[in-house]
Amino acid sequence: MTRLIDTVAWVHLEGGRILGARSRGRRLFYIPGGKVDEGESEVAALVREVREELSVTLLPETATHLGTYTAQADGHPEGTLVRMACYTAEHRGTPIASSEIEEIAWLSLADRERTAPVDHAVFDALASAGRLR
């Protein structure tokens, strides 16, 4: 039986690199974001999750859907898929690791294999568009 986890992610690019986060005790980086709670909009979930993880405030009126990607969920049983709606958005504040985040880093295309499987498709799409080096 297939299980689907709905998530959102903030695609924050600077200088051809993307901001990644690594949770405490985990090996792989992921694009910051998280699960959408029942009854919550994707943008509301994005604002909440990014504030919790990175201590920045996203400006919801600037959120732009970049694409939605699906892949096997990292650290879950085979057949558990994660569907990740990716958004760009302007923000206030400087990203710092907080809450359950152990480390943040600016990742390039060369770091693709250091990320969760669903992020691979995002990295590929951004590289094809010339936005990730």
SSE arrangement:
Blueprint: E1 3-10, E2 13-14, E3 17-23, E4 33-35, H1 42-54, E5 57-58, E6 64-72, E7 80-88, E8 91-92, E9 101-107, H2 117-128
Parallel strand pairs: 1-7
Antiparallel strand pairs: 1-4, 2-3, 3-9, 5-8, 6-7
InterPro entries: NUDIX_hydrolase-like_dom_sf, NUDIX_hydrolase_dom
Protein name: NUDIX domain-containing protein
Domain Nudix hydrolase: 2-130
Task: Give an account of the 3D structure.
The strands form 3 sheets. The chain has a 4-stranded mixed β-sheet with strand order 4-1-7-6. Strands 2-3-9 form a 3-stranded antiparallel β-sheet, with no helix packed on it. Strand 2 and strand 3 form a beta hairpin. The longest helix has 13 residues, at 42-54. It has 133 residues and is of the alpha+beta class. The chain is 19% helix and 37% strand. The chain has helices at residues 42-54, 117-128, and strands at 3-10, 13-14, 17-23, 33-35, 57-58, 64-72, 80-88, 91-92, 101-107. The protein has one domain: Nucleoside Triphosphate Pyrophosphohydrolase. It has 2 helices and 9 strands; from the N terminus they run E-E-E-E-H-E-E-E-E-E-H.
Describe, in short, the structure shown.
The chain is an alpha+beta fold and 133 residues long. It contains two helices and nine strands.
Order of H and E elements: EEEEHEEEEEH
Strand segment tally: 9
* Averaged pLDDT: 96
Distance between the termini: 37 Å
What portion of residues is helical?
A: 10-25%
Distinct helical segment count: 2
CATH homologous superfamily label: Nucleoside Triphosphate Pyrophosphohydrolase
Taken from the alpha-carbon principal axes, the silhouette is globular
Regions with little confidence, pLDDT below 50 for 5+ residues: none
Beta-strand portion reads 35-45%
Class by alpha and beta content: alpha+beta
Query: What CATH architecture label applies?
Result: Alpha-Beta Complex
Characterize the largest beta sheet: strand count, sense, and whether it forms a barrel: 4 strands, mixed
Pfam family, one: NUDIX
Protein name: NUDIX domain-containing protein
Keywords: Hydrolase, Magnesium, Metal-binding
InterPro entries: NUDIX_hydrolase-like_dom_sf (IPR015797), NUDIX_hydrolase_dom (IPR000086)
